[in-house]
Fold these 2 entries.
Entry 1:
Amino acid sequence: MREKTEKFVVTFRTTAGAIAMERACHAADVPGRLIPVPRSITAGCGMCWAAPPGARAGVEELIVHERLDVDGLYAILL
Amino acid sequence: MIYLDNAATTHPKPPGVAAAVAAAMDGFGNCGRGAYQDALSAARVVYETREQAAELFGCSRPDHVVFTANITESLNIALFGLLNPGDHVISTDLEHNSVLRPLYRLQKAGTAVDFVPADSNGQIDYEEFTRLLRPQTRAVVCTHASNVTGDLTDLDRIGAFCRSHGLLFILDTAQTAGVFPIDMERQQIDVVCFTGHKGLMGPQGTGGICLREHVEIRPWKTGGTGVQSFLEDQPMEYPTRLEAGTLNSHGIAGLHAALSFLKETGLETIHRREDAMARRFYEAVRKLPGVRVYGNFTAQERAAVVSLNIADLDAADVSDELGERFQIATRPGVHCAPRMHRALGTERQGTVRFSWSYFNSEEETDLAAEAVRILAAEAR
């Protein structure tokens, strides 16, 4: 397994919300990728956006600007 | 075969649609059911198709585009999810059974329903909407074009009526999506129901609903969504609210290719071409002895549909003769529009419907008109 490092994670209430985040981040050149939601956040299922901590400001700005359907924001070791 | 049954389903499809479906079947995982590349490929194409549909219909949010199996499913979801016992809804005699049968079922459960009547040429009086208004009126549901005559309804006028009286406007675009511009915001349409396989020229098994923000439809089914799995109820966020179960991402990939073709070609180009061929046919047959054409051809804009009868011949016999002898595909009967045929006085004879797409030709159109001329001459 890879060594865990701190990540900034965004969860969504819909798959459409997750894909909208990916598109917005790619368009704005904000780093990160979609991953399965880790159990430390919720034992449900679905995708979340995982980004390096330094991308947090850019991600949060996109969430507001693009009215993205976000469920929660987390700083966790992944 | 000369295919003139495009009001039932367009055929052939644009280049690239079948290839997109095949590529999706080879390359897609399940949209929203994993974060690995094949599942993401499906989810990305599905989302892009939501964006395309939102742009096409003037829907402000891609996540308010919901995918269904067809427009009948879309209309059922909208009508049963919005109307309650005690509500009143106004519709028209122009409707297809995809609107009528849900309304009749709602009527039995206590929703009041009124229909704006059509006259003997299939025309409606818009003042009737006002006359039918009640304090309990909640919505208007109607088609954008009669699938029998091709006559359009006036969306601007109905939208303004709905907005001025606080009514929901639910629109059936089965005969117009992909050919006529539809703008939910400008035309004040709350719910646009569409099918993927007619004017949008995508695969059968695709359809959807575009919603204005704040339109709250009760989920008609519940089940797996790939998100919020410990919630006992269906998640209430769109589009997941109305999309329990695996989406038809293979078909949606084909719809994506079809919508790309529409955008590249342009709706105006498509409409002008279809309209020119339908009017060419109409002009060639309208004065033939014994031929009666239904609908209003003085209208500047109409769908590319021509419904006719030859003398008192059974429409089914005429359509069969066209198919077997002339290899021309048409649709006879009442076209799932019983109230319209009752208004036209054709509930027993039916009509023979010819309908064009962008991919028909003038030569095919002329051959169809010549076949009608021959059959009309033989009927005398």
Entry 2:
Amino acid sequence: MQLALDATLTNVQASERSSSELEDIDALVRTYRPRLLRFVTFSIGDADLAESITQDCFLKAYNGRASFRGDCAINTWLTSIAMNLIRDQQRLQKFRFWRQARATAIDVNEAANFLPSKECSAESRVLIKEQTKHVQAALANLSVNQRSIFLMRFGQDMELAEIAAAIHMPLNTVKTHLHRALKSVRAQVGGIR
Amino acid sequence: MKSSIHLVHLSDDQIFSTLSGDVSAGVAAHLANCSVCSRRVAEAEAPIASFKALTLAWSERRSATLPLQSPAPPPLAWHRRAVMAATATAALLVGISVPLARNEAPSAPVVTSHAMATPSSTAEVATVSAPALTAAMQHKIPEAPAAVENGQTKPQDEQIARDNQMLQNIDRALDNSVESPADTYELQPISSQGPARERAKTLEN
């Protein structure tokens, strides 16, 4: 009984903390925009459109902050909103997906310059660049669901159950999509030895 | 038991499950004891870790260059928009009507005066005496709605009242009751039958 009460109190406190975090829009954007921008960029393959969608996402989140119940992490909530916006874009066919958008996709060679020079040597920088190119190429060949789930799991660090809840998909289906995505990435990179 | 765990390495599916975060107790136990499988998992993770690191560095840099835009306020409800539109319209009307009222106020008594409005009335005014005109004006002033209702026309009313008073004073000064200097010397107007005329007639005859 006491444990249940403590758990309830902890949930309430976490909810209040999350709600107060949502009130400070500047801090919210500063904290979550990089990851969200990455998620949207690699979901649609267009960096410019991703910026617009990310901005819309924060606008929606801020305007709808009263509806946030605190039963999931803010990152998960924001990702769900971003996912809905991406789907809206797909429905409106404002862009052609990934394969057609490669021209505006990020340049890995250029992005490698942003890696912290203290943490990686020149050799490891080259290796990271090559591996990233392979993963990026693999992502381009995935289905929309496989790519979204892959990015949620490895980009947003979401648990499988959180992904299932965010995209309203059964847990086993999420596992299947992720399994196929990993298989495709392995094939692109060169296989697990 | 321990040897059986080491003999059978993890399958690709099990490694994928491990990467996905769906790790069973048996797989976790095997990974804890099998360096081969641990290395395979690490090798499978490496490209993904590289992708994460590089893309995060890119998105952090990109975010840093983007302006920190605060969301715009939510759109107003239709009734609030209607109220704001009505207020703006009212303010516009007041802004237009006040200068017009100022321009119209001095001529209000003239315009509303029926005696001055038509040509026939003008003819009557031409023959009417000054006190009568003053009385007519004084009678018409209260009928001007702008002068009565608008507080700004009060000074103009006072000016009109002063003018009327001045006209009355002039009337009084021109009144016949005032004694003429001719009366003092008992001068008589020249009549047609005066002595000069009689002398002229005699000379003619």
